[in-house]
Design brief:
The protein has about 160 residues and is mostly helical. The chain has four helices and two strands. About 25% of the residues are buried.
């Protein structure tokens, strides 16, 4: 197996693993929500949607493509002496942390057979949804920025020729 094939396989394996982790975190949150027995959300369809949402969020938001070299609007610096902050990476990391903490709380409550108040369950579910939403937004913004940055560079190159 040559280097390009090995790198391609590694990327597919990593992205698949991240998607599975997102699906598992969604499953844990959905299992905790099932304990409160709200009929509207206690169905196989909702469970599937939660797993799909988590899977896509972790797939898109935790393995961001690098930004094009000419895209500086996504990078903020307060001065030349401070390191630059990639806001998209920060949003993605924050979303991953929030989703992971919500999944951890869900798993711990399931394993310990705790039945928290409904408001706790709803707060955990909404926290997880917010975390995955941040991942989705960051991943989408990074990919759109990469696409529009490359298209913009191609247009600039074509007008110069």
């Amino acid at each position: 197996m040559n280097g390009a094939h090995a790198n391609g396989f590694a990327q597919v394996a990593e992205r698949t693993g991240l998607a599975i982790m997102g699906a598992l975190s969604g499953l844990y949150v959905a299992a905790l929500m099932a304990k409160i027995d709200i009929e509207e959300i206690n169905s196989a369809g909702v469970l599937f949607l939660v797993i799909l949402y988590g899977s896509v969020g972790f797939y898109l938001g935790t393995n961001l493509p690098s930004l094009p070299s000419g895209v500086s609007r996504r990078v903020v610096s307060d001065g030349d002496s401070r390191p630059r902050t990639n806001l998209i990476a920060l949003v993605s990391a924050t979303g991953t942390l929030i989703a992971a903490l919500a999944a951890l709380m869900s798993v711990s409550m399931i394993v310990l057979d705790e039945i928290p108040p409904v408001t706790w369950n709803v707060a955990i579910a909404f926290s997880w949804m917010l975390g995955v939403l941040l991942q989705l937004g960051a991943g989408t913004a990074a990919r759109l920025g990469q696409f529009t940055g490359a298209a913009g560079q191609a247009r600039r190159g074509a007008t110069r020729a």
